[in-house]
Give the backbone structure.
Amino acid sequence: MHLFTAEALILDVFDLHDRDRIVTFLTREHGKKKGVAQGARTKHSRFQGQLQPLAKVVVTWFEKEGKELGRLSSVELVRPAHKLQEDLDGILTGSYLVDHALEFAQEGETSDLLYRLLDSTVEALVSGVDRDLGARYFEAWVLRLSGIFPSPRECPVCGRPFAGGAVLPPGGDTLLCFECGAGGGGRGGPSGFVVGPETLAFLRRLGRESLETLALEAPGPQVLRQAEELCCRVRRQFLQRELRSYEVIHKTRMGL
Ligand SMILES: [Zn+2]
């Protein structure tokens, strides 16, 4: 039996029987972890109020050799995330971030960069940064950290810098210039998803500016939608499926 203590971001909490909860959390040193919070559903539990998705905590847990599921000993709240639980939009944004972390973080492997990304994004969102911008920043950076973010600078085929836009071919995972992307487009036009110059400029800023700095001069909704669609297509191509929360967000938006 080993005892661990680490700063963590809570990803997911679900009920187990009528007394316990299972908590999934992300740490820098150990990646994604899962443990049982015994008695967390009972009235005077020591975990009361500590187990909310995206809260930052210090968690202490036991692990038995060869067992995937640990046992939580204590959870201390460092930064609550109530602000992302107060309305539907906040809840959806929060679950979108969580879905990424659940999907892209590995169990038992260090996740320093992903941890820092999630931590700083939640920090910014809790302090009031625009959620749409925050979600675009986060989704693009998850792809960057995974090495699958398409370069917004130059065409990987001919090496020329993008002028006037770029295109993501159908089923493709990288942006091409209009000339290289024109194959099979019919009538000489590019086939696939076209990304405009303003969106490319935003994607370049995103690589070098913090979320807070981006927010000072945030792009318009059209640029955000294009950036989102691009990331979504690249991510879907990589995962071969859609994140569940994204489907919900999409349907909710359509319904509004
Ligand atoms: Zn090209």
Summary: The radius of gyration is 20 Å. The first helix runs from residue 88 to 104. The pocket of zinc ion is lined by residues 155, 157-158, 160, 176-177, 179-180 (CB under 6 Å).
